[in-house]
Amino acid sequence: MKIRERKEKTTLEQGNAPKESIFKKAIAKGTSIKEGVVKNVNSKRGTKTNSAGNNGENKEKGKIGTVIKNIFKEGISKSGITIRTQLIIGFVIPIIFLLVVGIVSYQRAAGALESNYEQSTTNALEMTRNSLDSSLRVINQQVMEMVQDTNVRSYSLGAYIGKSGQQMTSRNAIKTTVSVKETASDIVQDIYVIPVDGEEVVTSKTLDNSKGGKGADSFMEALKKSEDSFLFDNAFVNWGETHPFFDSCLGISMDEYTLFCYQAFKQGGNQGIVIFDISTQGIKNLLQQLDFGENSHVAFVMANGREVNTSTSTRK
């Protein structure tokens, strides 16, 4: 019995052993299966992860490619300005600079030309004024010389009244002097020597009685009482603008002269006077030498408002 029990125990132990080993193997196998499953799962997941990563990279690359394509296709830059706009700006900016440089250069050149023109015009006017001043100073000197001339003083103050020979000689000498001085100057219209009453007026002008002139007879006393009496205010050389009574006596038009230079002289109760009329045409000829271009106006204006220009002379 004991032997059988031992055998049964042994059998039972042996019978249980395989089951236990089988179970352990099953467990181990299950573990390996699980591990295999896990590995498979992990490998699949890894594959999915790798494929997802690759897909993500491809998608990123696709996006970048799409952006690049859009940049070249639509011309969009990072700053948001189109390439066409950039090209236009690239062309316009140099043109703007060229325009600015051209405008500035033009303005500077125009300013320089204008300045040079103004300077040359001023110089021309100054030269003309100096020329006119020189001519008038010469006339001023010539009036003084005539007043100091012995023949002029003697004849004008009546020293040769009743002495026909000396009277004629003196008159002819004065006529020669008057003619020479009038011819020597381009701006002298006429020269007059007015003696005392009883003598003849000596002048470079051809007197025309048809214009109301009184011939060559002197009118000294009437002149001293007329509106031209200012001619005898002093014994210095003076300049005047008009002598209306004098004009009416000799048939002179005011338009013939612009101004006049004169000097009166006397001895005792007798008086004489020398007058140089300045030619209006002579002044015009001088002004016509000044050419300042179209729409320019050059005039000689006197204190009384009388204006002489290249076309007309006007008294106010």
The number of distinct helices, counting runs of at least 4 residues, comes to 7
Task: Tell me roughly what share of residues is in helical segments.
Answer: 55-70%
Proportion of β residues? 5-15%
Let me know the number of strands.
Answer: 8
The biggest sheet amounts to: 5 strands, antiparallel
Cα radius of gyration in angstroms: 63 Å
State the low-pLDDT regions, or none: 1-53, 210-215
Spatial strand sequence of the major β-sheet? 2-1-5-4-3
The overall average pLDDT, rounded, is: 77
Main structural class = alpha+beta
Could you name the CATH class of the domain at 152-314? Alpha Beta
Envelope shape: rod-shaped
Which descriptors apply to this entry?
316 residues; alpha+beta; Beta-Lactamase; 5-stranded antiparallel beta sheet; 3-stranded antiparallel beta sheet; 7 helices; 59% helix; 13% strand; disordered N terminus
Structure characterization notes:
The structure is a single chain. The protein is an alpha+beta fold and 316 residues long. The chain has a domain at 152-314: Beta-Lactamase (2-Layer Sandwich). Helices cover 59% and strands 13% of the residues. It has seven helices and eight strands. It has helices spanning 2-74, 83-148, 150-156, 164-184, 220-224, 244-250, 280-288; strands at residues 188-194, 202-203, 238-240, 257-267, 270-279, 299-301, 307-309, 313-314. The protein has a five-stranded antiparallel beta sheet with strand order 2-1-5-4-3. Strand 7 (307-309) and strand 8 form a beta hairpin. Helix 3 (150-156) crosses helix 4. The longest helix is centred in the N-terminal third of the chain and has 73 residues, at 2-74. The chain is rod-shaped. It starts with a helix and ends with a strand.
